[in-house]
Amino acid sequence: MAISAAGELTLAAVDLGASSGRVMLARVGPGRLDLTEVHRFPNRPVRTAGTLQWDVLGLYAGVLDGLRAAGREGDVDGIGIDSWAVDVGLLDADGALLGNPVHYRDARHETAVADVHAVVPPDELYRVNGLQHLPFNTLFQLAAMRGTARFAAARQALLVPDLLAYWLTGARVAEVTNASTTGLLDATTRQWAPGLLDRLDLPRHLLPALVQPGEEIGRLTADVRAETGLGDVPVVAVGSHDTASAVVGVPARGDRFAYVSCGTWSLVGVELEKPVLSEAGRAAGFTNELGVDGTVRYLHNVMGLWLLQESLRTWAAHGLPADLADLLAAAARVPAFTAVVDVDDPRFLPPGDVPARIAQVCAETGQTPPQSQAETVRCIVDSLALAYRRTVRSAEELSGREVDVVHLVGGGARNALLCQLTADACGRPVLAGPVEAAALGNALVQARALGALEGGLGEMRRLLRTTQQLVEYRPAGSAAAWDAAEARIAR
Fold it and tell me: Domain Carbohydrate kinase FGGY C-terminal: where (predicted)?
C-alpha cells in the first residue's frame, strides 16, 4: 500500500445498523489500519399510529455523542457515514424534516407495488434500475406516500446517511452507492432516471445531486463544531450503503471471489465492472447496486441473521434461554438437516415469532418441525448456508464470474458454525473477517480521499490482509447431502 505525504490520519467512521449505531475511530497510516469503538448507541424503531418508524433524531444525537467522544481522543481528520439503504426522510421548503423516516419493514410500502407495476411492468423496471424486487425499495415507499399531506409538502428526499450528513454540514446530496438501491437510478447511465420519475408521478425535485465515494460533502457547521468540540472537519462521502463499505472491506486477492456481508441481512454476490440486466437475473432475484470505484455489487439479498435475532427476542420475551453462544454450541450437536427452510420466505420478513413461523413452514414441506431451541438454531444456520450456496452458484452462472473463495464479513464472521457450514455448502474455502468490514471500508475511502492512501481497491485490500484478523474454514462433508437438503426446500 502506497502511503502519501499526508501520513497517519485519525478518522471517525459512523456505522449505523438495524439494531445499533456506533462511531468507530480509525487510525490509518504506513502499514497501519486499526479501529477503536468510541461510542455505541441503540437504534430502536418506534411504532406510532400503526406505522413503524426510525427514531432518526435519536440516531443523530448518538452520532453527535460519538463525534464528541472521538474528539476527546485527539484531532479528527475526517468523518464518513454509512447505514442501511432505501429509507428516506422528507424535507420541506425550509429544509425541515417532515416526520421520521418510515421503516422498511412497515407493511404500507407493499400497497404501492401493484400500482407501480401497472405503470412500469417488473421486467421493464429491471431493465432500467437492475434491482431485485423488494417491496420496500424507495420507489415503492415514495409511491405509497402519494396523496398524503407529508408528500405534498416535500421538496427533497434524503436517504438516512445523506440526511445525517445534511444535519452535520448543511449540504444536501445523494451518495451514489445508496442512491442505486432506491430503484430510481438508471443502472446503465448511473444517473437518476427522469423518465421513470415522470411516469410514476414522482417530482424530480425530490432527488438531490449525486456524489461519488471520496468526494467531500461539506464541513461541519459552526453549530456542530460548538456542540462536539471538533474543528473544521470534512465529512467525506464513502460507500454510504453499509454493504458498499463492507465490500471495500473484503480482503480479497484478485476478482475470483464471492462475498457474504453477513448481518441482519446477508448480501451475497460478486463484484463486477458493469451491471447484468438479463431476464434470468431478474427471475433469480439478483440486484445491481453500485460500489466504490465504479464497481457493481451483483448480489441477492438473503434474510440473514435477522432470523436468529428475532428468535432470541421471542425466546427472551417468553422467559426462555436466549444466549446465542450457548445455543450455537447446542446447535452444533444437532444432526445436520434435521429441518431446513427457505430463509427468503416473505413470512420471515416482519417482526414476530420466527420460531413459530419456521415450525409452520417445516410442517407445510413435510418435515418434522424443530423440537427444541437448539434444533431451531440448527435449522436457521443450515438454511442460511444453503441459501449462500444457492446464491453463490447463481451469481457465478448469471455473471460468468468464477469463484475460488467465499469471503464472509460482518457480524456473522464471529459465528464459527455458520462459517464452517458455508464452506461445506459452497464447496470452497471461506475466509471469515473482518467483523468490522463496513467501518473499515468507510475509513479506507476517507483515508484515500484525504491523501493518506494511494491506489485502488486492490491496494486497500492488501492493507486489510496485513492488518486484520482472518480465519479460514476449509470445506468438508458431502455435496450430495447438501443437494438432498436443497431438494427438501423445493417441495
Answer: 258-449
Residue range 459-484, pLDDT digits in tens: 999 999 999 999 999 999 999 999 99
Q: CB 301: neighbour CB atoms within 10 A?
A: 21
| pLDDT tens-digit map of 315-360 | 999 999 999 999 999 999 999 999 999 999 999 999 999 999 999 9
Q: 162, 242, 382, 424: which is the annotated catalytic residue?
A: 242
Residue 66 lies in a domain: yes
What the block records as the C-alpha cell of 354 is: 420466527
> Which parts of 17-62 are beta strand (E)?
20-29, 32-42, 46-48, 51-53
Domain region containing 95: 2-236
C-alpha cell at 177: 452507492
3-state secondary structure of 240: coil
Q: How far is Cα 489 from Cα 341, in angstroms, rounded to an integer?
A: 6
Vertex 426 angle, CA 423 and 430, to 5°: 35
Within-domain flag for 73: yes
Does the annotation count 242 as an active-site position? yes
Give a yes or no: residue 205 inside a domain.
yes
